[in-house]
Specification:
Length: 152
C-alpha cells in the first residue's frame, strides 16, 4: 500500500463489518484485511460496532485435537475456574509425585523448592482442562483477572 492511499477503503470497511459479524477476533480481522489490530479496534469504535459483552458467544467454541482422540469442543477456562473455585476446602497433598510421574491426570502444582530433597508435585486429580487440582487452581487463577497467574 502506498503512503497516499487511505487505510480504510469502502472494500476494507465491508470486509471489517462482515468479519466482525462472523465473530472473528480483532487479530484475525486485522490479518485478513492487512492492517494492524489497533487499526481494527479503532475503526470498530468509530463505527460504533460493539459485541454484546466481552467474550461474546457469537464465536463458535474452539475445537482442539487431543492426542489419540477426535477433536472436541473445549469449554471456556472461565467455566473451569468457576467450577474449581467453588470448593473452598483445604488442599490435600496426599498424592505427591515426581517429575517423571507427572501426567495429564495429575496436578502439576510444585511443592517445596526445585532441587530440594522434598521437592515434588501435588499429584491430585486436576480440574478438567486445567493443569491444577481445584485447590491449587484457586491459588493459581484469580477470578476476574482474565486468567493471569497470581504471584506468590
Amino acid at each position: 500500500m502506498l503512503a497516499n492511499e487511505p487505510t480504510w477503503t469502502a472494500e476494507r470497511v465491508e470486509l471489517l463489518k462482515s468479519r466482525f459479524e462472523a465473530g472473528l477476533s480483532c487479530r484475525e480481522i486485522a490479518g485478513d484485511i492487512g492492517v494492524s489490530r489497533n487499526a481494527v479496534i479503532g475503526k470498530l469504535s468509530r463505527l460504533n460496532l460493539t459485541r454484546d459483552e466481552p467474550g461474546d458467544a457469537r464465536r463458535p467454541a474452539r475445537k482442539v485435537a487431543v492426542k489419540g482422540h477426535r477433536s472436541r469442543t473445549v469449554p471456556s477456562r472461565q467455566y473451569h475456574l468457576r467450577r474449581a473455585t467453588a470448593d473452598d476446602g483445604p488442599i490435600h497433598n496426599g498424592h505427591c509425585c515426581s517429575l517423571l510421574e507427572l501426567s495429564d491426570e495429575r496436578c502439576r502444582w510444585p511443592i517445596s523448592t526445585p532441587g530440594a530433597a522434598d521437592f515434588c508435585f501435588c499429584g491430585n486429580t486436576p480440574v478438567e482442562g486445567l493443569p491444577y487440582c481445584a485447590g491449587h487452581s484457586r491459588l493459581a487463577y484469580r477470578p476476574g483477572s482474565h486468567l493471569r497467574v497470581a504471584r506468590r
